Amino acid sequence: MSRRLLLVDDDEAIRTIATISLERIAGWAVIPAASGQAALQAAENDGPFDAVLLDVMMPGLDGPTTYQHLRNGPLPPDTPVIFLTAKVSNADREHLHTLGATGVIAKPFDPMTLPDQIQQILD
Amino acid sequence: MPKARSVLEQTVWPRGTRSRAAILALGAYMLLYLTWQVWRWTPGRQQYGQAFLVPMDAAALYATLAAARRCAGAGRLRSFWRLMSLAVAAQLIADILLLLNVIKHKVPPFPSAADPFFIAFYVLLFLALLRVPVAPVGRARRVRILLDGGTVVIGGGAVVWYFVLGPAALAGEESTLATVVSIAYPVGDLILLAGLAAVLLRRVPDALRVPLLLVAAGMLCSIVADIVYGYGVLHDTYTNGDPIDTLYMLEFALFALAGSSQQPVAPGEIGLDVSQWRQASTRASWLPYLAAPIGFVLLLGVDWSHPFFPELSLVVIALLIGTLIAARQYLALRELASTEAALRESELRFRAIFDNAGVGISFSDIEGPAIIDFNQTFSQLVGYTPAELRGQDFKAITHPEDIALFQALTPETLHGFQRELRVPQRDGRELWGSLTLSLLRDTEGIPRFVIGVLQDITQRKEAEKVKDEFLAVVGHELRTPLTSIRGSLGLLEGGVLGELPEDATNILSIAITNTDRLARLINDILDVERLGSGRIEIQPTPVNATDLVKQATQTVQTTATLAQINLQSDVPDLLVSADNDRIIQVLVNILGNAIKFSPPQSTITTTVTAEDGSARFSIADEGRGIPAERLQDVFERFRQVDASDAREKGGTGLGLPIARSIVEQHGGRMWAQSTPGHGSTFHFTLPLHAERVTALLCGHKHDPESNGAAYLAELQNINPALTSDAVLIVEDDPSLGKILSETLNHQGVPTQLVRTAQAAVERIRHTRPKILLLDLMLPGEDGFTVIARLRGEGLLADTPLLVYTALDLNHQDRERLQLAHTEFYSKATTTPQDIQARVSELLTPAGEHTT
Fold first, then answer.
1. How confident is the model at residue B712 (pLDDT cuts 50, 70, 90)?
2. What is the DSSP string of B500-557?
3. Does the pLDDT at position B727 exceed 60?
4. Label partner for B527 (CA 20 to 30 A): which of B141, B218, B629, B838?
């Protein structure tokens, strides 16, 4: 099943790798955004998405803040949001779930299994 | 009295029934002799009187020989007892000879064959005294001892001179030999007196104190008896069996007691620590003061008209004693003066050290607790002038958050108390200080003063903060590019971008292996650093050991399968109190290690057993093992048993140190056992959750007859919701948190302690505390957030909330903290005990209030 994903990460290398992984392996369409601000714009202009992949640590608008803005504005309420984070302690995870995250994927992720991980969360 | 009795029981009254019987027999014999002295129930007088002495001498001989045997190998002590027994033996022979003479002649000739033995007794006894191990003394003290000894001997000499020697010389009727022999006794006594004084005024080993005192008492009996005897012989009033003989009987009874009171002394036990030795009796210091008046009093009885007592002889003696005493006093005064000077100098020196110390030192009254004394550094640290600080209450210089903590300290917990804390300065600024407290007790052991040593650690704290930030940044900055590299390589290897030639695949796998290793190394180094500095917070929750082992085994299963290693586990359902992720990290580290060092087709077995309130995890492999001398090293950072292992096996050398650190932060311990060639077993323990749960649910009525398995089964059936704690304490300061929960637990109130807002909310979602005790200043989110979230989620709508904070709250703050029932307590004015009292009140059902 083909999906459209919004990928938000400030690191260009990560964006490229994730894009290649998702496009080549799973055959999904990826709309990359380099910042929280860009993500908001993309949500306005390029939506709707099947899911949003959102990095937690970003300069400017960070992941949780971007998330709040997305939820308050352009993002349809039923769109799943998956956080990408290097902080994977239970408390951090719990915190993200409290915010309303659909899932959390730990960084560094394995690009070979990234599509599977996302699929599992969405299922 | 009880003290004297216990001394008696420990020393003179030995434990062995045989020795006790011997002492009883001795006492009975002495009584028998006394009845004879009083009623004279034998026909003759002299023979029996003399005959009584012989068995007593024999008893003393036996006891002193036994004492010498018990001190075998203890050098001087042993030769003291040997000479003592020789002396007693000489006396025994003399008494037997005298007895024979008495039987034969009725009135024995004088001098006789017995006399050389009697005289030998003095000589041997004196030699024995010379062998008593005494502590060496300085020159000044030796002079004083000499003067004191001299006073004693001259005092005794005055008596001997007045009563015996003078009159004997005056009488001058007998043969020269008889005169010499009769003079020899009192002179021998004087020599003994000198030896006795020299020994009694010095310090002796503890083991010898009681026996020596008994020997001294015996000798004094002998000296007194000899003088009376000499006087009696001189006036022809003495016959054998005279009541004065009782003193000789007593003398040898005392020698026998002395011998039996000598505790066994092992070779080398004496003489190691002379500073521990004590004077046999401090009363012995009075001997010279006893001797001096004797010398003077005798002047009163002088028959001035008698030609042999010109004023001069006794006046000379009295003057001599006076001179000796004066010289001694002079020396003592001089010593006192120099001691005082030394004391003053030492006081000045310590005052200088105190005043100029780089750390702040304060001295306060434990009752006050007002600050009595302090050094310059201390007043500078807290920013007060000395005049302002003196007499100030310690609360003035304590951070409000910490006051409750200090108030909760008891003399026991206070001593050695060490803590890093904020130090409020007078002008409102704040320092970081490291405070160490110690307790000063008075001579009766009652705690009186508190000494605080305060060190400025602001710079270190700042440096630590910088280091933390640096590590966080470095960790992030290193990981980010590494993530991209690893990801790119992964995509290439996965053939996502097309198949690669074989060489390229090989090169790629090298790149991947090493990237992984670098990533592990960075993670491990950051872990080690954060664990070492306690910056990783362990959040224990009840977890099932089975789950832990299952998860860890799953993680390493792929690696194990590749290495053809069989993973087995035998784990009962045990609830442990642990941080799930961290313990899995521990298990994965140990298992990973075991896999690395195990040969193919071997088995790694994980078992868990419950023991003494903790669960013991054991991971046994069949690898090559670790040599015994390296068993500790494996827990050191960057140590692998074989240096080449690091490269070959791709480890970071940090896995085990990290594992141990994590286990220790859980309050457990970790160790390894190994048989080289047969494999190693790594063990670690974690606290069982069971203890807490049982305490909460069952109190202490755990049935001793039920076996462990049933007990555990019972615990596993516990619904987590049932483990609701009566009081949930939210307090980030570990010490205060501990004090609060212990204070409450002590009153039978179960508690649960969490340190962050996050943990508090999480806990409340799962359990329903009866009371919430909340600190407001928490790391990250604060207490206000906790209440906001609880209100948001409609939790704890009817639970009393006690806010225990150092903050000054205004009206608005209080509004924000309202739950159904909210009470506010200031840390500055309310002690943990007050909180406990209030909690107990709240927990008591309304009807049961005792008013």
1. very low
2. --HHHHHHHHHHHHHHHHHHHHHHHHHHHHHHHTT-SPP--EEEEHHHHHHHHHHHHH
3. yes
4. B629
pLDDT band at B715 (very low <50, low <70, confident <90, very high): very low
The percent of residues above 90 in pLDDT, for chain A, comes to 20
Q: Residue B475's closest chain A neighbor by CA?
A: A86
Structural domain spans, chain A: 4-122
All residues of chain B having their beta carbon less than 8 Å from the beta carbon of residue A11 are 480, 484
pTM here? 0.46
In what side-by-side order are the strands of the sheet with A51-55?
Answer: A29-33, A4-8, A51-55, A81-85, A103-106
The CATH label, of 1.10.260.40, 3.40.190.10, 3.30.565.10, 3.40.50.300, for the domain at B541-688 is 3.30.565.10
> Does the distance separating the beta carbons of B497 and A14 come in below 8 Å?
no
Give me the CATH code for the B357-456 domain, please. Answer: 3.30.450.20
Q: Distance (Å) from the C-alpha of residue A81 to the closest C-alpha of chain B?
A: 22
A1 part of contact set with chain B, CB < 8 Å: no
* Beta carbons within 8 Å of B487's beta carbon, 6+ residues apart: A13, A14, A17, A18, A21, A108, A109, A110, A111
- Cα separation, B693 vs B43, in Å, equals 89
Q: Is B791 on the interface with A (CB under 8 A)?
A: no
Strand partners, B591: none
Q: What one-character DSSP code corresponds to residue A109?
A: P
Peptide bond into B501 cis (omega under 30): no
Q: Using CA atoms, how far apart are residues B554 and B520, in angstroms rounded to an integer? A: 19
- What chain A residue is nearest to B483 in terms of C-alpha separation? A108
Mean pLDDT across chain B? 80
Q: Nearest CA of chain A to the CA of B496: how many Å?
A: 6
Chain A, residues 21-60, CB within 8 A of chain B, namely 21, 24-25, 57
Give yes or no for A11 touching B (CB within 8 A). yes
CB B762 within 8 A of CB B772: no
pLDDT in tens, B157-212: 888 877 777 777 666 666 677 777 777 888 888 888 888 888 888 888 888 888 89
Q: Which chain A residues are within 8 Å of B479, Cβ to Cβ?
A: 86, 107-108
The CATH classification of domain A4-122, taken from the options 1.10.472.10, 1.20.210.10, 3.40.50.2300, 3.40.1050.10: 3.40.50.2300
Nearest Cα to Cα of residue B250 among B227, B232, B228, B224: B224
Residue B641 touches chain A, beta carbons under 8 Å: no
Instruction: Tell me the per-residue pLDDT of B283-326, one tens digit each, with 9 for 90 and over.
Output: 777 777 787 787 778 777 666 666 655 556 777 888 888 888 88
- B724-848 has which fold? Rossmann fold (3.40.50)
Please list every residue in chain B whose beta carbon sits closer than 8 Å to the beta carbon of residue A116.
none
